[in-house]
């Protein structure tokens, strides 16, 4: 064991990051593809974003979505992130527990972030969760249940903090059309 550790350490010291995991670098992405599919629209990814997809798994990220630094997506079934989503840094989105509790097999269930979801930094989204359109997940939340559209949730486990008025700010202050407004025309991505 010790010898093995020494070998790993030597490889790490040489800068060989594949010593423990064969993450493949594709631009800002670190991909561990074990036989799934990854479909990215016109998205902005900060470097690095990690995606691990298991056999038959499917990851999809829609146009105009942003995924920030050090966020990880782990997928054994299906992880779909919609359009206009803002996924902050250090977030973990996983559709699988990887390990079973007690003698039970691990559970994997699809995760969906609908259009316009904002996930605050350090949040964890677990298996089977659907985050509704335009919802906000507060920083550091652990989301274990579905989130209703246009609500803010926070805490561990995440609970509703408040509702969002989608056209908030329309009256009495300068209004800039947002993605959910029919008059909104997206700017081309840089
Ligand atoms: C989601 C967020 C924007 C909401 O802000 P807000 O609407 O101003 O909310 P408030 O600060 O008024 O807090 C409202 C309530 O939610 C609670 N709350 C706020 N943030 C929370 C969090 N991260 N976890 C749990 N509860 C939280 C507050 O304690 C307050 O509870 P109370 O009404 O019982 O006092 C903010 O909580 C947040 O997460 N900010 C970080 C955003 C981020 O990660 N940015 C990175 C760049 S993408």
Features:
190 residues, mainly beta, UDP N-Acetylglucosamine Acyltransferase, domain 1, seven-stranded mixed sheet, 1 helix, 6% helix, binds coenzyme A
Query: Which overall shape is indicated by the principal axes computed on the Cα atoms?
Result: globular
Please state the structural category.
Answer: mainly beta
The CATH superfamily of the domain at 22-98 and 106-159 is identified as Hexapeptide repeat proteins
The CATH topology of the domain at 22-98 and 106-159 is given as: UDP N-Acetylglucosamine Acyltransferase, domain 1
The H/E string reads HEEEEEEEEEEEEEEEEEEE
Strand order of the largest sheet: 1-2-5-8-11-14-17
Total strands: 19
Spans of at least 5 consecutive residues with low confidence: none
Helical fraction: under 10%
Gyration radius, rounded: 19 Å
Strand content: 25-35%
């Amino acid at each position: 064991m010790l010898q093995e550790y020494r070998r790993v350490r030597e490889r790490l010291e040489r800068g060989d990051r594949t010593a423990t995991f064969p993450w493949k670098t594709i631009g800002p992405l670190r991909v561990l593809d074990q036989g799934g599919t990854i479909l990215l629209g016109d998205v902005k990814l900060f470097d690095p974003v990690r995606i691990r997809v298991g056999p038959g798994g499917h990851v999809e990220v829609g146009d105009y979505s942003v995924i920030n630094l050090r966020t990880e997506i782990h997928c054994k079934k299906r992880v779909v992130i919609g359009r206009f989503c803002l996924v902050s840094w250090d977030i973990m989105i996983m559709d699988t527990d990887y390990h079973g509790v007690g003698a039970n097999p691990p559970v994997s269930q699809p995760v969906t972030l609908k259009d316009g979801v904002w996930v605050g930094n350090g949040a964890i989204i677990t298996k089977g969760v659907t985050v509704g359109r335009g919802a906000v997940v507060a920083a550091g939340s652990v989301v274990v249940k579905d989130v209703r559209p246009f609500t803010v949730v926070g805490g561990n486990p995440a609970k509703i903090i408040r509702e969002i008025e989608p056209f908030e700010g329309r009256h009495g202050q300068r209004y800039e059309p947002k993605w959910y407004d029919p008059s909104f025309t997206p700017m081309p991505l840089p």
